Amino acid sequence: MSDTNNPDSAQRSTVLADDAQVDLEAEFQASNVQEVLDKLDRELIGLKPVKTRIREIAALLLVDRLRKQFALTSETPTLHMNFTGNPGTGKTTVAMRMAEILHRLGYVREGHLISVTRDDLVGQYIGHTAPKTKEVIKKAMGGVLFIDEAYYLYKPENERDYGAESIEILLQVMENNRDDLVVILAGYKDRMDRFFSSNPGMRSRIAHHIDFPDYSAQELLAIAKLMLAAQNYRFSPAAEQAFSEYLKLRMKLEHFANARSVRNALDRARLRQANRLFACGKKTLTKIDLMTLEAEDILASRVFVDGQPDSEPGADTAVQK
Amino acid sequence: MMTNPGNRITQGQFSFLPDLTDQQITAQIKYALKKGWALSVEYTDDPHPRNTYWEMFGMPMFDLKDPAGILMEVNNCRKTFPDHYIRVMAFDSTRGVESPAMSYIVNRPKKEPGFGVVRQEGPGRTIHYTVHSYATDKAEGERY
User: For the AAA+ ATPase domain, which residue ranges apply (chain A) (predicted)?
Assistant: First the structure.
């Protein structure tokens, strides 16, 4: 990255001799990346392929930095990415982390994340799209531009759709302003595949296609515990048992959105817990009472009663992102 | 004219210096962004010192974090108006300040004819002076 404060920084950085030695470990420590990677491991359950790829990218950027010390020039690696996966597999969360990691490695200047959808990029009438898309790109410069549901940008069935124009501008910027921003696309796998097959230019400009696998039942339970811990709640042992039963049943039903469904289930459990505390008529409650979710808070779910998701029909699809 | 050394217009910051390079412009933009000011790009072909309000090139750019986006606008403006005066303005919207905090020219015409003095005879042998930009004798858009 160019350091504008001292225009001659490129010339000033001394080139090391051919037989000099550089300390990869020290460089790694200096970048504080380990901290972010550890946080990623701690706070994101599962997602093995994703974590592996992020580690690889971090390693590549570090090695690149060391190579620069020997004046071994190489092209700046392109880091535009594409995240595919089912709803609730943590695509947005990882994108935010990505911005932080790239910032620590000095790949992007600011490390902020601008999250947009089709509406922010594509206009309603002729001549509306270009300024809109450019506005968003300008905002994202120095950071990461995250385009959620990217496949909506291109609607092949509508010839007069302005999405194609937006894609064109994006492609240009991805190529010419590689140092200024990283574009991350995200969406469901099958639709993204169709999107790429109709936009070959897009596919070739994106170096990293990362697939987010679905979570297993154990992973979802671990996620639930993390979420509860973050909100200062916890399961009683019986409730934990009940919740893992709940997950097994819920995963078989339709509209299952991984971690997002878990979050919704926990929200409903908290409602039931509050209701139970009211109904039991105890005058005084302890801290433990207020923190603990009991089995009955989980078992009251409609999933157990009549094998239906709790949300009213259709409500779950509305929140699917 | 003695007051216009090298036939260059001297308005705003840095105007006695040689033209800023893109890198220097970026550094200045960065400074303004760090202060939390909103930057905008403006252009004109009427460089009279009393001409305060130039044409806006696009909207003022609020909530940008990085100079790259603004430099892109500057270069767009240069491409559109290669022979106009173009300036970058930084607006400080702090309550009580609410005025431009920086303003510097980033593009100027190749040939700047400068200004002439116009004298007007008033009552009682008084003379009123004003400056007149030679360029403005032509119509707008054909001046440089």
Answer: 77-216
